[in-house]
Give the backbone structure.
Amino acid sequence: MKAHEAVQLYFNRAADLLELSPAIRRLLVVPKREVQVQIPVEMDDGRLETYIGYRVQHDDARGPMKGGLRYHPEVDLDEVRALATLMTWKTAVVDLPYGGAKGGIAIDPRMLSVKELERITRKFIDQIHDVIGPHEDIPAPDMGTSWREMAWIRNQWEKYHGFNPAVITGKPVEHYGIEGREEATGRGVGILTYKLLGHLQRKPQQTRVALQGFGNVGSHAAKYLYESEYKIVSVGDQTASLYRKDGLDIPALLKFALNNKGVLKGYTDAEQITGDQLLELDVDLLIPAALGGVITRKNAERIRAPVIIEAANAPIDPEADDILHHRGITILPDILANAGGVTVSYFEWVQNLQFYRWGLNRVRQELEAGLSRAFDLVWQEARIHNCSLRTAAYIIAIRRVKAATELAGHQ
Ligand code: NAD
C-alpha cells in the first residue's frame, strides 16, 4: 500500500467516528501545495547530476506549515505527501499553532561528499525559497539531515530574504538553535513510553525493549530509557542488529557508534541477529525508530511485543495495524509518539521570533508538560470512543483542524 493511501485510511477511520461530510473530508485531505523541482549539481569529479526535490504543504488552517526535510534514496512525491499530511495531524494533536508540510530529496547522503551535499541543499533552496519562510513554512531535520543542512538552508534563504533565523529549526545551538532540540524526538519517545507503560502498570525494570534504528531518534530514546532503568535487550540499524538477554550496555554502544561513523556494525559485546529477528523478539516493548513500513501484514502475526511505540513515521501499515489491534497489542501512534521533535522546534521558532534564549531545563520541562497533556487527552478520547490510541489521536487532531478551517471560512 502506498504511504499516502495508508495515512488516508487512518484519517477515514477517525472521520467516520466524527461523521465528517464528504466535502469537509476532501478539503482536509487535499494538500494546499505540492512543489517538485529539478536540482542540477556539479559533482566533485566534474560530472553533472540531476536530482529531484519535493516540498509538500498540506494544510495551514492552524498556522504556518512545519515539517522536516528528508534525504533518502526512496524519497518520492507520494511519501512526502503522506509525511506532510502526518505533520498536520501531529502538530494538531500536540496543539502547536502550526499546519503540516514535508520535504525531501531522493539522494543517498552516505554516497555524497560534504561539499556535494552542501551544493545540492543550496540549489534546492534556490528553487523553493519563495514558498518557505518563518510565517509560511518552516523546515526542520528529518532522516538523513541534521543541524548542518539546517545551517546551510538558513544561510541560503537569507541571501534572498535577509536575516531571519526563524525560517528553519533544528539549527546548531551556537547559530540560533535551541538546546535540547537534537535529543527532543528521542526524549519525547522516552517520556511517552514512561506515561503509557505507567497506565499499563508495567515497571521499567521489568520491561524488556527492542529498538530498531540508532540514529537521532533511536539513540536518544535508548539513552533516556536506559537512564530510566528499562532493560534494552536489542538495538539495530542499517548495518547490524544486536541482542543481549540481560540487557545491552547502552552507554558503551552510544560511545561505540560515535566513534564508528554513527553505526553499530563491528560491536562485539552482543549476539548478532537479523533485522527481522529484532522486530519479532519476545520482548515487552518494541520501538521502531528507523524507516516507515517495517511492520506489514507479512510479519504482523509474528510480532510478539504487547506494546509498540511508533518512534519512526508510519512504521506500521494499516493492514498490519488491524491485525495487531485485533491481537490486543497496544500501539502509541507516530503522530503523538514522535511529536517531541516538532514541539521543541516550536520552542526554537518562538525563541527566534522573540530574540530570547531558553535554557535546557525549561525546554525539557515544557516538552514533558506538552507531551503529557497530549497523551492524557488521547488516552481519555480512546476510552470515550472505545477505540485505538491511533484513532483517538486522529479524532483530536481532525477536530482541531476542522474547527480552525471553519472559523477561517471557505469563501
Ligand atoms: P537518522 O537518519 O538519524 O537515523 C535513521 C536510523 O535508521 C539509522 O540508525 C539507520 O541506520 C537506521 N536504518 C535505516 N534503514 C534501516 C533498515 N533498513 N533497518 C534498520 N535500521 C535502518 O533518522 P532519525 O532522524 O533518527 O529518524 C528516524 C525516524 O524518525 C524517521 O522515520 C523519521 O521520519 C522519524 N522522525 C524523526 C524526527 C527527528 O527529529 N529526527 C522527528 C519525528 C520523526
